[in-house]
């Protein structure tokens, strides 16, 4: 069975993608900072799909935790897909750059960029061994567009996009996709803009875009989920 590591997998897009892969027969290594919802997710996936699931709570900025994630995947057979989905806003709710605490910006960069690269580095030997080794770095439209109050988060995602692009050039045997999932109703968005009452799409609605990448294996690059969903 193919094996995926998914960070930030206890809820939202991470959980929805984990469920979709399990339904397809994937085994999973799942990460999140909070143990209880992560364990609940793992139990739900195991009972519904029968996939092998390793749920490891921890912080992706911790190098020892990243090593544990990859070791768990190795025990399941390797790493065929790494999904860097865990994210930090840097401020909750988001604020203008004049008020953004520098420690908040550092946290966003540490989670969204440094930890993502650290996990790639840890998993790279196993990804190279896979016949379909792939990396998905979950990006944002804030990485490419200037939105008031989204400067710190957007800067971290822009940096992640560039790391993804360079990794794709350096590792031609892999597929490396930075994916902008578009608007979603997630806890992250609610924390970013708590006063926004406009309903957002369920994260599960964009999962078919990610599955399309895995099925079609287009060239490494940056992709938007809405455009992928429009393809026939």
TrEMBL record:
Pfam family for this entry, one: adh_short
GO MF entries: oxidoreductase activity
One Gene Ontology cellular component: membrane
Keywords: Oxidoreductase
Top-level taxonomic group: Bacteria
Xref: InterPro entries: NAD(P)-bd_dom_sf, Sc_DH/Rdtase_CS, SDR_fam
Stated family: Belongs to the short-chain dehydrogenases/reductases (SDR) family.
Cited PANTHER family: DEHYDROGENASE/REDUCTASE SDR FAMILY MEMBER 7B (PTHR44196), DEHYDROGENASE_REDUCTASE SDR FAMILY MEMBER 7B (PTHR44196:SF1)
UniProt name for this protein: Short-chain dehydrogenase
Organism: Streptomyces dioscori
């Amino acid at each position: 069975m193919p094996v995926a590591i998914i960070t930030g997998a206890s809820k939202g897009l991470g959980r929805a993608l984990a469920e979709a892969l399990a339904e397809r027969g994937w085994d999973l290594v799942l990460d999140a900072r909070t143990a209880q919802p992560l364990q609940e997710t793992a139990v739900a996936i195991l009972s519904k799909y029968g996939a092998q699931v390793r749920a490891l709570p921890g912080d992706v900025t911790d190098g020892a935790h990243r090593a544990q994630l990859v070791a768990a995947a190795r025990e399941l057979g390797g790493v065929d897909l790494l999904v860097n989905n865990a994210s930090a806003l840097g401020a909750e709710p988001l604020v203008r750059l004049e008020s953004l605490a520098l420690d908040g910006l550092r946290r966003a960069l540490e989670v969204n960029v440094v930890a993502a690269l650290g996990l790639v580095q840890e998993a790279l030997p196993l990804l190279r061994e896979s016949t379909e080794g792939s990396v998905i770095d979950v990006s944002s439209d804030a990485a490419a567009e200037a939105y008031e109050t989204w400067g710190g988060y957007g800067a971290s995602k822009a940096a992640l996009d560039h790391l993804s692009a360079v990794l794709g050039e350096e590792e031609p045997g892999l597929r490396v996709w930075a994916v902008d999932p578009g608007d979603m109703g997630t806890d992250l968005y609610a924390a970013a803009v708590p006063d926004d009452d406009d309903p957002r799409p369920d994260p599960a609605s964009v999962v078919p875009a990610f599955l399309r990448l895995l099925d079609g294996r287009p060239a490494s690059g940056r992709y938007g989920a809405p455009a992928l969903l429009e393809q026939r």
